[in-house]
Structures are given as structure tokens and as C-alpha cells.
Amino acid sequence: MSSDSYLPMPAPTVPQRPLSSYKLISYDIYGTLVDWETAIVKLLQPLVARIPSSSPLSQEYQDSTTPGSEGRIQLAAKFNDVEHELEAKNPSQRYDELLEDIYLRFASDLGVDITDSTRQEARKFGESIGTWPPFPDTVDACQRLVRHGYKLVPVSNVDRASFSRTCAGPLKGVDFFRVYTAQDIGSYKPDLRNFEYLIKHAKEDAGVEKHEILHVAQSIFHDHIPAKKMGLASVWINRKGAGMGGNEAIRGIHDRGEVGYGWRFGTLGELADEVERERSEEGK
Prior knowledge:
Layout: E1 24-27, H1 36-43, H2 45-48, H3 57-60, H4 70-89, H5 95-109, H6 116-127, H7 138-147, E2 151-156, H8 160-168, E3 180-181, H9 182-185, H10 192-206, E4 213-217, H11 220-230, E5 233-237, H12 247-255, E6 263-265, H13 268-283
Parallel strand pairs: 1-2, 1-4, 2-3, 4-5, 5-6
Helix pairs in contact: 4-5, 5-6, 7-13
């Protein structure tokens, strides 16, 4: 289990029952299965390197490539803020195009001149999704969960083409039952429409009822807050060193009772381990 002793477990959204009783796992992908943060931070470094030395931001984002560093946490938080603002403003925009706009907005906010070279970097940034690396435990854990009978369904804030490249590359070998993207739905999480779409299509495509869905995600903001609002059981994959939100922001969300996940693990592999432990106990 994850060692977040500073956070008590929240009151679960739905009465807790064995993990093995669920039929479909809906996933957040980027941050849960794919290490988006490491990729994003690395790809933003050309902009960070060009922050004017007179700007206080040159110190704020210093050492931002080091996991767990304050600079990395601040850079990831800044990315989240800009991403959410532009997703809310342009809910039907394809995610690869949105990433281009995020990069250019970042450049402007950091005081970096927008040149032809910057625009080329922005295009490459938008095209990079399929190259973002998986976490080491991802593929094996997903394969184990499929063997235990779960249908795996991504509910992702990306476009179809970008997710296809991820499936063909970093997540090759993972058997997804269906894929529901923001492009299919017409909005971005945490919009509740994305979760309404999941519940509706889980029933239509797999014959799975809402109470048989287990939502597995890293993002508190994009996934666990709306999962509670929708009455979905959920699992927080709280990966060590992830900078999204920061400890104080996450503590505040817990203190206000905005989340109700029933399980907390440090990796997806730990979730698969727990499922196998349950299955073993059932066998006895």
C-alpha cells in the first residue's frame, strides 16, 4: 500500500466490497498507466531553459527535472492549471492540438519569445503523446487483471489517433475492451459528461452496470472528485513523486470530503497483487 500517513482514508463513496466483485475497470491512462509527468516535464525544458534570467520564474522552476523537487512540482502544477483552463474553454478541441496551444501559452507565461522555432517545438509537443513511457508495472499489471476476468476500458482526455499510438507503442500487449476518449465524448474530465458516457456505454457495450465498474486513476482532480459525484467506486493509484496538486492541495480535498475512493495503492502492480490475494483467499 502507499505510505501516505499524512492522509486518512476517506469515507468510501459506495459500501466497500471485494475488488474481485467488479467486472469492468475504467482507467485514467496518462498519469496512471503512462508516466505523463516525466514526459511533460522533459518536453517543457526547452522553454524553462529560455526563461529570462531576470524573471523570478527562473528560480521557481530550477531543477524541475528531479522527481519530487519543488521545481518539478511547481512546473507540473502550472501545466495542470493551463491544461484545465484550455480544456474548459475548448472542450471539443483535439488533445494533440490542445497541447500545442498549452506549449505556446507556457512560452508566453514564462516570458519566452514566440518564434517559428517555438511553434515547431509546440507541434512536436502535441505529437509526442504516443512516445510517453509507461510505468514499469503497467503492462504486466494490466495483463494480470485481464486474466482475472476484468474488462479494461480507458476513459482518457486524449484524441483517438494519439491513444492509438500509445496502444501500439508504450501499452503494446494490453488488451483493452473498449476505449472512450475525450474526442468521442466531446468534453474533458473532470466534466461529469465523461463519466455519464462511461456508465451508459459500459451497459451498452459490455452489459456492465454502474455498481460493477471500478474506476482506477491517479488524478484526484480529473477522476476521483467526479467519481464520487457520480457514485462510482474508485481506486487511487498514488504514485510516489507525482507532483500533480501537491500534498497540501490534496489534503484539503480530503478534509472537505470531496473524494471517496475505497482503496489506495502506490502502483498498479500493487492493485493486481491485491486482486490475486483475494482470488487466492476465495480459492481456499
